[in-house]
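Preliminary data (for renewal application), NAP complex.
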Amino acid sequence: MSTPSRRPLGTTGMQIAPIGLGCMGMSEFYGKSDDAQSVALIHHALDAGMNFFDTADMYGPWTNEVLVGGALRARRDEAVIATKFGVMRDDNKGFLGINGKPEYVRACCDASLERLGVDTIDLYYQHRVDPNTPIEETVGAMAELVKAGKVRALGLSEATPEQVRRAHAVHPISALQTEFSLWSREPELELLDTCKELGITFVAYSPLGRGFLTGAIQSPEDFAADDFRRHNPRFQGENFQKNLDLVATVRAMAADKGVTPAQLALAWLLSHGEHVVTIPGTRSQKRFDENQGARQVTLTAQELAFLDEALPVGATAGARY
Ligand SMILES: NC(=O)c1ccc[n+]([C@@H]2O[C@H](COP(=O)([O-])OP(=O)(O)OC[C@H]3O[C@@H](n4cnc5c(N)ncnc54)[C@H](OP(=O)(O)O)[C@@H]3O)[C@@H](O)[C@H]2O)c1
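Predicted structure:
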């Protein structure tokens, strides 16, 4: 059975595409991009009935929100826009740390509304939990934004089960966004169950292993000089070679099924239940269509068991960051 075209966003009543669109790579991290092509892709996604778009203030930094907001402006009511605050950047693309202080939350939200050109952000995430600010204080400030009508629903990213519970006690959390894929399976240990129990949608980011699980990346030399993956542990020397073996398993199984490795990786994520959605990133209409095609792919119990064994938690060489 194929996956329906919408899954609920927490208990908000909003309905989102189970396979959304991660827009980060349109502005930074994975090499060169083309704004006109990205805008065309966003329109293509809307035409295809896809409604869930993911951005963050720190992508670019700041330019990704302008790009995404601009592309969606004339069709605002067709889109659920998710953005994030909390990672401080500077004008030279440097990273200045994490900030979850209430005054920072308020200032970031106003700035994101302005850049996106919208009256309300549908889903507003804390991008990383600030170790120096109690999560209750941050979420308290986020809850005020809901009250003020600036934000519809709240989310967290990369929070622990305990942090999710603490935050949820202050104000309902609608989404938890965390890395989850065939090569990052840690959320299966506890986080997925926590989300299910609390009625929170789990949004799997980097579902294609930052492109690696698609089989399209064969050498670290394929990356541009400023590509984030050049410095990511999983893409280095020996790790890279070891991880290619994992991808070989995914490729072989996909070929047997007559689907692409990307479709297999995404279908596997969706098989975890209605509370799981994902946001693969791409700048290509062809790949967008391919990725959306994963909704038509179903995995048998036998296939799921095979993947479970072939790619267990911890099988991937190298840390996520
Ligand atoms: N919350 C967080 O901390 C966090 C962290 C990272 C990402 N994210 C969000 O999650 C989204 C997705 O994650 P991601 O972009 O890091 O990784 P991803 O979705 O796992 O992979 C994206 C990469 O895969 C390539 N790709 C996509 N579809 C493909 C296909 N069918 N065949 C071959 N290659 C394909 C893309 O290249 P092309 O663009 O050239 O197609 C891109 O390089 C981001 O856009 C961002 O919105 C959130």
